[in-house]
Amino acid sequence: MAVRNNLYDALEYAGQVEGAARSHRKEIRRRKEQGSAEAEEGKHTPSAGEFLSGFWKEDRLIPSITVTIFFSSKKWDGPLSLFEMMDVSDPDVLACLNGFSKIRIA
Predict the structure, then answer these.
(1) Could you tell me if 46 and 56 are in contact, meaning their C-beta atoms sit under 8 angstroms apart?
(2) DSSP characters over 84-101
(3) What is the DSSP letter of 83?
């Protein structure tokens, strides 16, 4: 479940980035149609990297929180995080991994 939750969160973030890119492309098209005079009046001009990615440095993602509910009379005995699914003890390797949070069980 920890892998699936991480995938669902990543897909949510990818969708948000694509939505921002779609909105920016639409705005750039609108400015071009109205002429270059308005395009220069306080409007953001994306850098090459921003233009290519579609995500501008001022853009922000909305945090994705995935809740997993385990329905069983038995206690969950599986891993609660991606870290628990890995056999890594080297602190240098752990420092490179994303900070995946544990699944909370009430």
Answers:
(1) yes
(2) GGS----HHHHHHS--PP
(3) G
Which one-letter DSSP state was computed for residue 73? S
Three-state DSSP class for 77?
A: coil
- What is the model's pLDDT at position 42? 62
Please give the Cα distance from 4 to 11 (Å, whole number): 10
* Three-class SS state of 81: coil
Q: How far apart, in whole angstroms, are the C-alpha atoms of residue 82 and residue 100?
A: 7
- State how far the alpha carbon of 39 is from the alpha carbons of 8, 89, 99, in Å: 37, 53, 40
Quote the pTM value.
0.76
Q: Read off the pLDDT of residues 50-84 as tens digits, 9 standing for 90 and up.
A: 989 999 999 999 999 888 899 999 998 988 888 88
Q: What is the rounded distance in angstroms from the CA atom of residue 27 to the CA atom of residue 50?
A: 14
